[in-house]
Amino acid sequence: MAVSVKKTTNKKKKKKNENNMPLVNTRAVRVVLGLFFGILCVFTVISLISYVFTWAKDQSLISNPNVIQNSFEAHNSGGKVGFLWADFLISKLFGIGAFIIPVFLGAVSVYCLRIKKVKLIRLFFIILSGAIVFSVLFSYIFSFTSMDSMFGKGAGGSYGYFVNQWLCAMLGNVGAGGVLLLVLFIWLTLLSKKVAIKFDNIMFKTFHSRDKSDNKDIKSDVEQMEDMGPDVPEIIEEVVEESDDELRMETEDNEKAELIEQKKTTDVRDKEVELVVEKNDNDFFSNLSEDEKARLFDPRLDLPSYKQPPLSLLEDYREQWYEVSRDELDKNRIKIVNALANYKIKVDRIVAKMGPTVTLYKIKLADGVRIAQVKRLEEDIALSLAAKGVRVITLTDAIGIEVANEKPSIVALKSVLNSPKFKAADMELPIALGITVTNEPFFIDLEKMPHLLIAGATGMGKSVGLNAIIASLLYTKHPSEMKFVMVDPKKVELSLYYKIEKHFLAMLPDADKAIITDTQKVIFTLKSLCQEMEHRYDLLEMADVRKIREYNEKFLSRRLNPNKGHSFLPYIVVVIDEFADLLITAGREIEEPIARLAQKARAVGIHLVIATQRPTTDVITGTIKANFNSRIAFKVNSMVDSKTILDQTGANRLIGRGDMLVISPGSDMTRVQCALIDTQEIKNLTNYIGSQRGYSHAFYLPEYVDNDSAEGIGEVDLRKRDKLFEDAAKIVVQYQQGSTSLIQRKLNIGYARSGRIIDQLEAAGIVGPFGGSKARSVLVSDFDSLDKIITSLDHY
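The structure corresponding to this sequence follows.
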């Protein structure tokens, strides 16, 4: 295959190196400019204010040709220079409208000092147009008063004076006034957020597209390869450097479009208008009319004042985002070509796609070269590059070689949650995981997965990944819509989430803590979840639907009767950290209910996320793998461990620190840099949620009594009935559910007392005997029959 090549001379290379040398310290220049414009802003304000009161006294200075050198003193607080500067802005230009000029000078100072983000181009147009508008407006207004000679040409300065004279001559006083009001209205409209966002987007696309086209022209130059033998053909190198900062820039440009005012508290941070991630309405709600929406039941009304946490609680880690240099790209390119040339593998083209921690080199092989040849050289290529994380993958039209960057960047969870693609996605249980090798935000819907297995060696990012999953759901779901069952055998990994117990956590009614650390309690909880699963399937059968989403839609539209036991069903996400420890202590008792839930619980909204740092076959068994099709693998120590998790190699070649491989049904394996959320960010998040009003207690799962330890109720004296016996009986009959936890929730009493009441109800013939994992049957179908039983009990 003939390839045209433009040779690069030494002179050109020398020039290129010279251009890459930093001539100045950019940060120092920025600080100097910031201080300069800050001082100029203050000086201008002082000079303008003083000019208003002293302009008549200093008029003699203007007629003197040597105003700077003469002995006369200026009355202006800014001295002679201040007077001349203020006279130029006010008298020669904009009159009172000149007072808007220091705003721009101050903004430039803020921009240079990086105190706050400022859109200088938009602000420049607003300030300039504002000065012009107010110049003409003040000239028009004061022309009807005795102050029309203010500052020589009037309150509008020379510019406003002449424009006003022309307008009045052309349209008359009334017409000129109408035009000025219209122009003022248009200027005020420019200040609105929506217009500002559109302007920013236009400017961003204009300059960004121009930058990318210029960049492409530079990077598409054909260069002669170095250190290559005479038998190796020279290649066309086409590196497409997608902006590493593109995702964050796009996020910034769309921030203002999503502003929602948060709850005002004593904390200054909470007084600001913050960004939140809003749940997209699904097709069911979007197809309803306004009247139909008004008749819907809203489960969020249980906590109407609940506010979703703002993204300001999270860090953006911008100072730890590094760009891949052209020198690094060229160096790796040459090494890759040389390594392949040693095995007589010819290359047509290389395209680089840069991610936060890994760069993907897409290699177009010459005709006749088989991809399998390159795959077999993975070890040799890794050795030649002398870099971490080298992995050879097969692409649709090329071979891909992933190489770790010399300086890995940190991906902030905030940037992924705030990305427009994440916000636009229609997901029930959205999880923001990180950024891919091609610099795209990566997120998944747990509801569709439907369960997730996470594995990796110690210290490779597994705990951070779990926290990113939990935080994503906390940011996107209301407490009424989702609950967590958290299992933490280590007792320290998930302890930070205790503060949200009354908002998002679920537990057994008799449990001491919402986050489960005891193995026996874990077994009971998993079996209770199986009981909850069967109960939900019964409700779906009664409602004649197949999935929880359809059931909740039917319930929200008031087509299901709560008196028949129907209620809104929140999603339940079961998070189990260090699954291996549980298997060591409980074994089959843990694996059986997990396998049962994994097989059946998806349709009723129960989803499992289990994690382990021991990816061995005795932990990730065939049963687990068969029911967890979606898996995340962080770096592991061996090829065997990688195959245990993913059924293929690759995880052993990751670089650690959150570098991971993700597989799910229907999609290819994807390499992702996990988003970071550290301990302080989790504390900020849980403190924000926990400080708000929550439910009276955690969400109670069905009570579970171990069959081996269950005993009969013994002798029950119905003459010593509990004071709440009659209320409990009515609740049981109303909901047709003989449940201790139901009585406990409705009457807000302890588990032991509700257990004694259920025993009394059994003795009275209102509920049936204990039935193991199944709820007790209710023997009374209506309140009339119940009244007869209670009346008969009164004769004891």
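The two ends are 103 Å apart (CA to CA).
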